[in-house]
Amino acid sequence: MNSEKLALLLTRDMPYGKYKGRKIADLPGHYLGWFAREGFPSGELGGLIALMYELDHNNLRALLDPLRQTRRQE
C-alpha cells in the first residue's frame, strides 16, 4: 500500500450510484461490503474501492486521518 493510493481515496469522487459525488474514503462500510460481495468495478476505480473496503473491513480508516489533516492545511 502506498501513500499515493491512500491520497487518491480522499480526492476521487464516486462517479455513480447512490453515493455519487462522495469521496471514496467517505463511502459507508455496508456499500463497500456490497461491492466486495458483488464484484468491484474494473480499472482504477475498482482498485480504490477494494482498497477502501480493506481499510474499512480491518478497522484501519484512521490511517487516512494524517492525510486528511495535510489536505486541510493546503
Explain how this protein is built:
- With 74 residues, this protein is mainly alpha-helical.
- It has one domain (3-73).
- Helices cover 58% and strands 0% of the residues.
- The protein contains 4 helices and no strands.
- 12% of the residues are buried.
- The model has no long low-confidence stretch (mean pLDDT 92).
Summarize the structure.
The protein is an all-alpha fold and 74 residues long. The protein is 58% helix and 0% strand. The chain has one domain.
- Main sheet characteristics: none
What fraction, in percent, of the residue positions are helical?
55-70%
Question: What's the assembly state of these chains?
Answer: single chain
Instruction: Give the total of beta strands.
Output: 0
The run of helices and strands is HHHH
Structural class, from secondary structure content?
Answer: mainly alpha
| Strand percent estimate | under 5%
Mean pLDDT comes to: 92
Estimated radius of gyration = 12 Å
Count of domain modules: 1
